[in-house]
């Protein structure tokens, strides 16, 4: 009798193990490929900034010119805002401004969203064209800007924490840039723009992961 019970028990255990294994394999098939490289640059960005007159608001927008492990982020051999498949838009609030001689230090908080646009139409004359795609990453923003008021040049450091993330398809593959609670640091160089152009400042920089809460 005991041998019969043992055989039944092990048969049930084996069946359960197969079921669990099949479930794990099913979840893994077609899963998003996370694009986080802790040892290098994850994204590169190009953009412009408009500070709203008489308000503490700053709109910062543009396109992503490179993503680690994705071969091309443009829909043609011409690489500019009009062909970029990925764009970003930051809405920031100025919390503090400190003047120190010829330097101005500005602290801001806000939200940054990255979009995927299968039919890109970015145009720096119309900032809203950089947020008319499908949101694939939403992040909180903590920003410090250090501006040389004489030279008109500045450096910026952003710290972003992911609050929402979605997958997307490109070149027949499914990707996801990050997961909730992942954090990034963005390093930016910029300068005042030429008179008569749409934005007050032009910027370029890169993004690196600084923390990964998936483990």
How would you characterize this protein structure?
With 215 residues, the protein is mainly beta. The chain contains 1 helix and 11 strands. The chain has one domain (32-211). The chain has one helix at 2-28; strands spanning 33-34, 43-51, 57-67, 86-100, 103-116, 134-148, 153-165, 168-170, 173-176, 183-192, 201-211. The strands form 2 sheets. An 8-stranded antiparallel beta barrel has the order 2-3-4-5-6-7-10-11. Strands 1-9-8 form a 3-stranded mixed β-sheet, with no helix packed on it. The termini are far apart.
Q: Provide the spatial order of strands within the biggest beta sheet.
A: 2-3-4-5-6-7-10-11
Radius of gyration: 23 Å
Strand residue percentage: over 45%
Structural class of the secondary elements? Answer: mainly beta
How would the global form be characterised? globular
The number of domains: 1
DSSP helix fraction: 10-25%
Instruction: Give the total of beta strands.
Output: 11
Order of helices and strands: HEEEEEEEEEEE
Number of distinct helices: 1
Provide mean pLDDT, rounded.
85
Distance between the termini: 46 Å
Major β-sheet, in short?
Answer: 8 strands, antiparallel, barrel
As residue ranges, the low-confidence spans are: 8-31
């Amino acid at each position: 009798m005991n041998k019969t019970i043992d055989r039944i028990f092990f048969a049930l255990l084996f069946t359960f193990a197969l079921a669990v294994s099949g479930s794990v394999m099913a979840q893994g098939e077609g899963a998003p490929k996370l694009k986080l490289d802790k040892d290098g640059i994850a994204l590169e960005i190009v953009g412009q900034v408009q500070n709203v007159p008489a308000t503490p608001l700053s709109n910062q927008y543009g396109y992503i010119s490179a993503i680690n492990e994705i071969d091309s982020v443009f829909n043609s051999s011409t690489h500019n805002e009009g062909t970029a498949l990925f764009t970003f838009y930051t809405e920031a609030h100025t919390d503090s401004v400190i003047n120190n001689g010829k330097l101005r230090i500005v602290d801001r908080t806000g939200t940054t969203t990255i979009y995927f646009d299968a039919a890109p139409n970015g145009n720096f004359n119309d900032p809203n064209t950089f947020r008319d795609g499908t949101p694939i990453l939403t992040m909180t923003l903590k920003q410090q800007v250090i501006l040389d008021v004489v030279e008109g040049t500045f450096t910026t450091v952003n710290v972003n924490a992911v609050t929402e993330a979605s997958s997307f398809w490109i070149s027949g593959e499914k990707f996801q840039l990050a997961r909730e609670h992942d954090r990034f640091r963005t390093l930016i160089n910029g300068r005042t723009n030429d008179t008569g152009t749409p934005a007050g400042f032009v910027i370029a920089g890169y993004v690196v992961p600084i923390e990964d809460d998936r483990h």
